[in-house]
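Q: Here's a chain of 152 amino acids. Please give me its 3D structure as tokens.
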Amino acid sequence: MGNSTLITDYLGYGPAAGRPAAPAVPAGCLGLYYAADIGQVYVWDGAWQAWAPPGQSFAGSLAGAGTSQGTAAALAADVNLFTTVAAGSGAVLSAGAAGTWQKVLNRGAASLLVYPPPGGAIDAGAADAPATILAGGGATFWQNSATQWYSE
């Protein structure tokens, strides 16, 4: 492995659409671009990988939906930002492998109900019972098994 005194040759930020197609980054150096509109960091190494996003997905401007686990909004991203939340509305965590996680941020006006996948439980709650994220709050949900999630 070689060493370089030049860590980054390009740092930038702005909307995802404003990201340069190919910055002039020498081989062995990194270019970084933060797409502020979608909360994504992109990396360009100048030699073999072009603007690779990290292994985390982001969904923003989400709205709480429904009033039960069956009608709540389905979460598909790792990081989920809710900006419209009506009283009693919610979201459902997606089932994955043990060790996976989903972060939920509530920037809406009301509390957001976050349900486990059908048959699952969050912390010491009953099966299918929601956790509550207050307006302005957030939580990370870790899947421990096929039916158990923990929050922090």
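Q: Can you summarize the key feature?
A: The chain is about 0% helix and 40% strand.
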